[in-house]
Amino acid sequence: MKELVELIAKSLVDYPDEVVVKETIDGDTITIELNVAGDDMGKVIGKQGRIAKSIRTVVKAAASKGDKKVIVDIK
Length: 75
Known about the structure:
By secondary structure, this protein is of the alpha+beta class. The protein has helices spanning 2-12, 41-45, 50-63, and strands at residues 20-26, 29-35, 69-74. Strands 1-2-3 form a three-stranded mixed sheet. A hairpin with a 2-residue loop joins strand 1 and strand 2. It holds the Pfam family KH_KhpA-B. A probable RNA chaperone. Forms a complex with KhpB which binds to cellular RNA and controls its expression. Plays a role in peptidoglycan (PG) homeostasis and cell length regulation. GO terms for molecular function: RNA binding. It is found in: Cytoplasm.
């Protein structure tokens, strides 16, 4: 999941070198923390959060095969 979020985020931002993704696994819950440059925050979130919602939807769909719950935090 970490690689998927990293790939999506790096394709959206102007500063792909500043994209940092951390993955924490706790039982059947996976928490993915996405950190981007301040100037790129708007590009990752999108208007009314549409891009952020789309990222979460894609990651949850990919995680559904493994019966894991995925939480994506954008910071």
